[in-house]
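Bit of a strange request maybe. I'm writing a small parser for structure token strings and I need a real example to test against, not something I typed by hand. Could someone generate the tokens for this chain?
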Amino acid sequence: MFHYNFTNDLRISNLDTILKESANAFLTDTVPPATIDKSKNNNFMTLGFYFNLKAKGNCAKLAASGNIKKVVLNFIKKFQFPNVRTSSDYENSISDKILLAPMRDIVKLLHILSMISYNDAFLTKDEIINFIFYNEDLAKRKNYNLLNTANQILQYRKDHKIPANVDTTESNHIWNQPERQIREMLKTVNYTGCFLEDENGIKLKSDGITRDNEADLFEIINCNSYWTGETLEDYQKYMDEIFMNDEDDKNILQNISSNSYTPNSSQTIYYGVPGCGKSNKIDEETINTSDEQKMRVVFHPEYTNADFVGQILPTNVDGNVEYKFRPGPLSKILRRAYLHPDKKYYLIVEEINRGNAAAIFGEYFQLLDRIAAKKEVPANGYTYTEGWSRYSIENEFINWYIRENLYADVSHKLQNEDDGIAKKSDDESQKAIEIGNLHFSANTGIRLPPNLSILATMNTSDQNVFILDNAFQRRWDMVLVKNEFGKAKTEEEQKNVDQQKTAKIGDSQITWETFQKTINEKISQFSKENNFSSMIDKRLGCWFVKAVPDKNDANGKYIITEDSFKNKILKYLWDDAFKFCHEDVFEDADNFEALLEKVKMDNPDFGVFKNVDFSEKEEEN
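Reply from user aminoacidic:
Good idea to test on real output. This should exercise your parser:
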């Protein structure tokens, strides 16, 4: 069931005046009784509950002083179901197991839609009703994932099919005048100046958003808290919390500056042909970083969000089964970066496109947006600066994993990080910690800190890979690793380069550099002649195979072994690079096994290539 009740009478068009008037009335105990002015009494009492003026606390004081904006933003961020406007409303929401901050989720959904495509950054009233209020996953937090909800909305716009998690049974919907009450919510959201609202719905402005409006938007997006109390007093305290000791003075805001964290917030994907040196580029960038400051993971088709972030798993504790959160690589490196602001940390993702990267990152996709230089994002009494994620996500398991492990190990040692979070009492779950100048509490959203970088590699020629969509790629610096030996930075590295270039293939007199260049020219030729645009990415990388010392040579000569040539190089060329033109490149062979039988290492063309003369290329060198 879904029981909802809101109001039709917030007087949004005259909100600045009426909120100030009603706040003064509550503070001075001059709210007119219904017997004298029923209309004004009803209006003041409605505003008094929703904007928390009845409590005569910070919300009322700010509204009375004319700071209406902060009071309205607080309402947009924190109004929720269940609430205690009436006991029946509260009991119905509890019975339905609803936990929903509707206006906040509307703003977050519009923002997520804008990240996918600005043209899709709108919500109709029907979409709001179905995908927010009657969404089992969202409204009842069975599988709270706003990115998934956004994708469901986009799919619905294509096929007009309501997903199974949306309850379409009208008898389950107990709500008088839902359209009018949603319109009232949308008018309130529109107060931020970031949206355009009409009778059909609401959309994000494409331009004209001021810096102050943008800061307000970020403040809403980054709010993840919920009230879970039972009494009116608890609810009023929750609504008033954000204003404690604020005095509307920005100088009081605690500044979580990137200066307290080692700036390092790059997100880079190194891409290129197989063996061009992508992983080596990452090694060069992290060469002076200890192993403890790096976390390496390989994406593959079976790799999931649970593997990457963490998951709840059963554990045998003294003969009893307990369920614990087992952190994944992202959670582990995130914790390390949080606890050691003075160090650089790297999450290294190998083969990022061999897994479904968008699904693996899931809602953490939002964290890839970082705050630019000289920009600030206020959130929950703090100001985040350059290098922090612009937006936060809610994850109680990671939040507690960071706080619980810090309590358990005050020396910040990491030997217990694989143990998972222990069972916590209600008191412990509310513990806050201080990490540098960051106050990290149970309500603190998860962000990527400035000292954490994510580096990834991507082969451009892999078969059966997942395509990285534009929305995902936009949040990365894409760096092409050129397929060339180049000049090394040190004498030792140059020695390795020279050994690789001049290594002979088996017992032949053909060097690896000559072979690689000749084959790549052949690939480029066929790509151009046959209009196979993807074939150009099948070229052999300079480090496709590694030269090794020749066991039969006492002078330290390096070679590409015959085994590597046959089972790595030839196999790749047969199965992949020249897959569609065997007859143009290779001597007659029905299959790869037959091709291997023709190999003659002392032959100028190895006995298997057609119209390719490596000796001519060798003479040019």
